[in-house]
Amino acid sequence: MTEQKNTKVVQDAYAAFQGTDIPAIINSLTDDIDWQVLGPPELPIAGVRKGKPEVNRFFKQVAELWNFERFDPRQFIEQGDIVVVLGYYGGTAKESGRKFAAEWAHVFTVKNGRIAKFREYTDTANLIGALNLAAART
Hints:
- By secondary structure, the chain is of the alpha+beta class.
- Helix content is about 35%, strand content about 45%.
- β5 (about 100-110) and β6 form a beta hairpin.
């Protein structure tokens, strides 16, 4: 698959996320997807997920935790089957009402037109701070 087609797979997944079409995202993944958000255990979404059912649970957890006011994939960098996306998101933690905003990098591996691997690198301290209910009450 050409790099442009790999980028299109990733762009379509982002469009599905922005449209809250999680089934479309899940459909864009390989059955044995390797999905990881790097971060400490205090961040509920951090960790490794394997397979479509676990990634589906990840998206349910994201929806339970945050309201996104902005989600901007800004730059796509392709090389072979790797697509790196640099972007920004911001919004509110649902339970605490605290704001979050962070730059991020997502790294995708696309195999045969499907996303086989995903890594997210972001400001986890910012996300954890937004979830911190004790801090929200002070």
